[in-house]
Amino acid sequence: MKNNQTPEIAIETKNLFIFYGSFAAVSEVNLKIEKQKVTAIIGPSGCGKSTLLRAFNRMNDFVPSSYVTGEVLLSGQNLYGSNIDPVEVRRRIGMVFQKPNPFPKSIYENIAWGARINGFKGNMDELVEQSLRGAALWEEVKDQLQKSAYELSGGQQQRLCIARTIAIQPDIILMDEPASALDPISTLRIEELMQELKKNYTIIIVTHNMQQAARVSDYTAMMMLEKDGSRSGTVIEFSETKKIFTNPKDKRTEDYVTGRFG
Amino acid sequence: MIRKTFESEIQQVKDEVLLLGSMVEHAIIGSVEALKKRDIKASEKIMAEDKEINKKRFAIENQLMILIATQQPMAHDLRLLASCMEIISELERMGDYAKGIANINVRMGDEPLLKPLIDIPRMAQKGADMLHRALTAFVNEDVEAARSIPVEDDEVDGLYNQIYHELMMYIIQDPKTIERANWLLWVAHNLERVADRVTNICERTIFIATGEFSEIKSSDDEFWKGQKK
């Protein structure tokens, strides 16, 4: 945010509820995610972090009986509006998963494939190089682009998935525990990469690793199950990361970040 | 209870800070007592004990570093451990003031005191008492006490001003007293600084409890306000 300017909002939820059948897995979420920042979603297991993350690009649509009420606004447009194509939503809001999931194809094809089906008509070699550079992988793979993606290490595969995501130039990148299956050095690489990526993209990350949230994010949303015993998760505190980890306002956040709950 | 080990280690650090505080308290009172009685041996003992204070401070610092590195404290825990780092440094400096007073007594040699000490022991007693209560407030995270103790610094400043003016009178009346007056002025100055550092500890206690940095007025400012340009 520039001084004295209203921060630019990339995506916003308004009174968002996410249901599985009659069960509200996530209740009443009102979040404004700032553009070109990293926002972390933290909270104990089963509080709806991943469900909320998946609502940002309609991945929950794949779960039968799931539906939302309220709104998710991308540049002011409700992603759950009747005229919205969910495929287009997922093109504009990419996702990186916990376990690297490259296609069983070459490194090159992993990037080219998505771009091609999205109608990319430019210089493919350039796009592949640019995307791999953007994901800090180019130097390691530039001489072996035809090699199978499966031959890469876990950390490299995850960066390839990030390269694949940025190849189609999304507005937002969602990351669901992107480093939890990686070793510490690969984890730090991904974290460092996120700082580069946020110069061009807005990132929302779900993580169980609180130190990681503290290191990588600008804002943190703390989720917890509602007190009413409904087993429904909600955001109990949303603030700058530095405040969440030094002086949280909610006692439950304090207990969670200090490791006394969850 | 989750984090039982960490909590007992935090408690241990707090106990060690209290122990360091009581060593310093003892040094402050002892240094003035020794000066009052012109007991050089007692002063030499206090100077030697200052090494123990310094050692204890470094041991606590080491303990804090290990806890920060291995436990990754957050929120209240982080504020507490980071503040302990500050508090032990304040205590160690207070120990230095006591050592300074002891040193003055040793350096005075056979010279008699310029005047019997009345206000200086009062200052020492008041400063040590404030320190004691400030550390109790720290352990209990008693914000109310932490805010009220520094107000008592005015009393210490009042005594300091009184001593200052009294010693100036001696100097004006007989310039040969300059050196002996100056020694006592240094003693009073050290004691005045002790009370100032108590204020810093109280500020830390408020920070630990509330997360807010609040600067309580500096008595230095008050003192200089009272002096002519």
- Rg over C-alpha atoms of chain B, rounded to the nearest angstrom: 19 Å
By DSSP, the count of extended strands of chain A is: 10
Oligomer: heterodimer
Structural class of chain B: mainly alpha
Using a beta-carbon cutoff below 8 angstroms, give the protein chain pair with the largest interface and the number of residues from each chain: A-B, 14 and 12 residues
Helix-residue proportion of chain A: 25-40%
CATH class of the domain at 9-99 and 172-257 in chain A: Alpha Beta
Largest sheet of chain B, described in full? Answer: none
Terminal-residue CA separation of chain B:
61 Å
Rg of chain A over CA atoms, rounded to whole Å, is: 18 Å
**Tally of alpha and pi helices of chain B:** 8
The termini of chain A sit apart by: 33 Å
Percent range of helical residues of chain B: over 70%
Overall pLDDT metric of chain B: 94
Strand content of chain A: 25-35%
Summarize the structure.
The complex is a heterodimer of chains A (262) and B (229). Helix content of chain A is 34%, strand content 26%. By secondary structure, chain A is of the alpha/beta class.
Question: Would you kindly provide a written description of the structure presented here, covering whatever features stand out?
Answer:
The complex is a heterodimer of chains A (262) and B (229). Chain A has a domain at 9-99 and 172-257: 3-Layer(aba) Sandwich (Rossmann fold). In chain A, helix 6 packs parallel to helix 7. Chain A is α/β, with parallel strands linked by helices. Chain A has 10 helices and 10 strands. In chain A, the strands form 2 sheets. A 6-stranded mixed sheet of chain A has the order 6-7-8-3-9-10, sandwiched between helices. Chain A has a 4-stranded antiparallel sheet with strand order 2-1-4-5, with helices on one face. Chain B is mainly alpha-helical and 229 residues long. Chain B has 8 helices and no strands. The mean pLDDT of chain B is 94. Chain A binds chain B through residues 210-211, 214, 245-248, 253-254, 257-261, and chain B through 2-3, 6, 72-79, 211.
